[in-house]
Amino acid sequence: MEQGKGTNPMIVAVVAALVMGLAGGYYYGFTRGKATVVAEQDKAAQVAAEEAQQQLAEQANPFGSEEESAVNPFTETYENPFEGGGFNPFAQ
Question: Measured between alpha carbons, how far apart are the two ends of the chain, in Å?
């Protein structure tokens, strides 16, 4: 009898199961890791957008607050148009 010439079907089945298990684990881990990375990127993009929006809102106000260097140019030159020597065409 020649015992060394054939391949045992049990060994082939075990090797095939190992290869399939490794491939399935790799695919499952890759998709799970990809979903985690995408979620982290979305969160980082949302935080960056909120920060940029806040920064733009602060820069867009030309009058600013009292603490900032921007000043309201109309605070000292206000004049009530209905008082004093103004001309009122509807007055009788």
Answer: 134
Residue 71 tokens, joined: 């000043």
| Residue 64 domain flag | no
Tens digit of pLDDT for each residue in 6-23?
678 889 999 999 999 999
Q: How many domains, the chain?
A: 1
> How far is Cα 65 from Cα 58, in angstroms, rounded to an integer?
10
Token pair for 3: 């015992």
In which domain, by residue range, is 20 found?
A: 8-57
Using CA atoms, how far residue 65 sits from 18, 74, 87, in Å, is: 68, 14, 35
- pLDDT tens sequence across 38-76: 889 999 999 999 999 988 887 766 665 555 555 666 767
| Calpha distance 49→66 (Å, rounded) | 27
What value, to the nearest 5°, has the Cα angle with vertex 12 and ends 7 and 13?
Answer: 140
Is residue 36 domain-resident?
Answer: yes
